[in-house]
């Protein structure tokens, strides 16, 4: 018969008890839901696509920045009729991204877009060195479940929800002004439709008289399964709304959806196909 000494038993019981306590703590931790702070970005999937179309040069430019305090997507469409369109779009996007990445916390949206747009406008004018140039710009910031945005020109921001695209911003073209004049009774419908300058931009970056961007009055509340779409006119002038919605309705990653949209544009082989660029963001919940 072997006799155990109580003093020799003590370390084994302590070790066993410690192991049991650690296991219980790990089990309890695994049952507690982890909450993510509201000021940290929930995972956002980002997809993009681009084609030069029938143009000799790609005047569209885009970029995204993911920071601890939020996500920024920016898309600019250099004005093709001006020789400095590529310089303008590149300068604008790089300015916005730099301003965002230098922030230590999520900014006041109105202050951010006001400061960034004027900084971009001045940078474009300096870089052009007197050469005609300009660009549209549409940008979206995501913080938690809120979508903030700012835009100038005719590139668009939309949210795909429940099978349809919801337009968020307005086009800054003469066409929009003509529609307002028609609605107020100042001109007839035919006069609005027949104006040969209706597609002309009335506000853009790289413009001596630029005043301000169109900025959201309040954040757009995102819902699960929403897809945020930024695109240049080369996309929405080439595809119907139904064609866009059909692709966006597919259960595929944003990158695949963006590529499918660009593929469809290229398949059409339109004679005067403009540069076309699209960014799609889908938030994880």
TrEMBL record:
So where does this one cross the membrane?
12-28
Q: Which CDD domains match?
A: PP2Cc
Q: What InterPro entries does the record tag this protein with?
A: PPM-type-like_dom_sf, PPM-type_phosphatase-like_dom
| Keyword terms, alphabetized | Membrane, Transmembrane, Transmembrane helix
SUPFAM superfamilies, from UniProt? PP2C-like (SSF81606)
Asked if Cell inner membrane is a keyword of the record, the answer is no
Q: Which domain of life is it from?
A: Bacteria
Segments forming domain PPM-type phosphatase: 45-283
Matching entries from SMART domains are given as:
PP2C_SIG, PP2Cc
Query: Keyword Lipid metabolism on this protein?
Result: no
* Protein name per its UniProtKB record: Serine/threonine protein phosphatase
> What is the native source organism of this protein?
Paenibacillus xylanivorans
């Amino acid at each position: 018969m072997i006799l155990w000494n109580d003093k020799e038993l003590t370390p084994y019981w302590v070790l066993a008890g410690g192991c049991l306590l650690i296991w219980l703590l790990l089990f309890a931790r695994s049952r507690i839901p982890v909450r993510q702070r509201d000021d940290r970005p929930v995972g956002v999937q980002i997809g993009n696509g681009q084609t030069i179309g029938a143009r000799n040069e790609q005047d569209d430019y885009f970029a995204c920045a993911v920071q601890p305090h939020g996500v920024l997507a920016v898309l600019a469409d250099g004005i093709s009729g001006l020789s400095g369109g590529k310089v303008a779009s590149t300068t604008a996007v790089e300015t916005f991204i730099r301003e965002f990445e230098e922030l230590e916390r999520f900014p006041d949206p109105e202050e951010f877009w006001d400061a960034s747009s004027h900084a971009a406008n001045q940078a474009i004018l300096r870089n052009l060195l007197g050469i005609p140039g300009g660009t549209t710009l549409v940008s979206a910031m995501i913080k938690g479940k809120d979508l903030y945005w700012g835009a100038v020109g005719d590139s668009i921001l939309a949210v795909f929800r429940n099978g349809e695209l919801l337009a968020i911003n307005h086009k800054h073209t003469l066409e929009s002004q003509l529609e307002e004049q028609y609605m107020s009774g100042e001109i007839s419908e035919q006069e609005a439709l027949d104006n040969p300058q209706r597609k002309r931009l009335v506000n853009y970056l790289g413009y001596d008289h630029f005043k301000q961007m169109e900025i959201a009055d309040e954040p757009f509340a995102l819902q699960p399964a929403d897809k945020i779409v930024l695109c240049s006119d080369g996309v929405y002038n080439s595809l119907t709304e139904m064609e866009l919605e059909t692709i966006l309705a597919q259960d595929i990653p944003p990158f695949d959806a963006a590529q499918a949209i660009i593929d469809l544009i290229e398949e059409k082989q339109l004679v005067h196909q403009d540069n076309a660029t699209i960014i799609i963001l889908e938030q994880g919940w």
